[in-house]
Amino acid sequence: MSKSFNTITHNTDDSGVTTLTIDRPNKLNALNDEVLNELAQFFKSVQVDKDLRAVIIKGAGDKAFAAGADIKELQELGNRSGRMASQKGQQIFQLIVDTRKPVIAAINGFALGGGLELAMACHMRIAGQDAVLGLPEVGLGLIPGYGGTQRLSELIGRSRALEMILTGKQISADEAFQMGLVNDVTDGDVYETAQSLADDILENGPIAIQSALKAVYHSGNQNGYQIEADLFGELCDTDDFIEGTTAFLEGRDPNFEGH
Questions:
Q1: According to the model, what pLDDT value does residue 89 have?
Q2: 64, part of any domain
Q3: Residue of 38, 117, 203, 228 marked catalytic
């Protein structure tokens, strides 16, 4: 992907891991309308980019992953425009959820409001010890509007989600880990930890990774088991399946080619 943006940067390494940086450090990487539009453009192209195998999202600087939405833009909203803004944010973050390549949030500093909603739309989350997470929208007379009320309940359960949302309380990285909101907390470099996780994932069959993402996100749906069975069958017809099982029986590392 060669396209350049104004508020986000991206760079893909030799292993196919793309680092996407929200690049508004003087605004604590707040998600204004331009950032959301550029995130949408980026993720619409992810699935068709054959060189891109995984995405790590981080914030520029050391103070914030993304410290919420742009409050000045929020102040202009009314009933109709507010509903449209919420639906737009939901649709953009759903693009991330629906991406069939792993997306990892590397959370440093503040991940508040829309910033935490962005992190929750990622498939996995790694937090640094300095991370502070929360959904403080009720303090502004609002509720989370980019899918936060739904995804937080899915991740940590309704009772704890309600406590976080109704109080607007900010929590530490360790608290987030204990709740299951983040996958890991690191004392070291949060980006390097996310990179290590991406590298571990990419050692496995790429078609199987895509299928696993699809199957897991249908868990709890009425047709989830059927989708799992269909994908399992489809994978049995792939060259990656033959290579993986043959390599296992021969005691060597597999060489997956994504076919």
A1: 96
A2: yes
A3: 117
Range of the domain at 127: 8-202
Q: Per-residue pLDDT tens for 61-80?
A: 999 999 988 788 888 899 99
* SS3 of 195-246: HHHHHHHHCCCHHHHHHHHHHHCCCCCCCHHHHHHHHHHHHCCCHHHHHHHH
Count up the domains in the chain and report the number. Answer: 2
Residue 186 is classified by DSSP as E
The pTM of the full predicted model, rounded to 2 decimals, is 0.94
Catalytic residue from among 34, 137, 234, 257: 137
Q: What is the pLDDT of residues 101-136, one digit of tens each?
A: 999 999 999 999 999 999 999 999 999 999 999 999
38 is catalytic: no
Q: Are residues 194 and 228 in the same domain?
A: no
Residue 61 included in any domain: yes
Residue 3 lies in a domain: no
**Residue 147 shares a structural domain with residue 243:** no
Q: Please say if 137 is a catalytic residue.
A: yes
Residue ranges of the chain with pLDDT lower than 70?
1-2
| Domain co-membership, 120 together with 20 | yes
Question: Given the structure tokens 């990285």, which residue do they identify?
Answer: 173
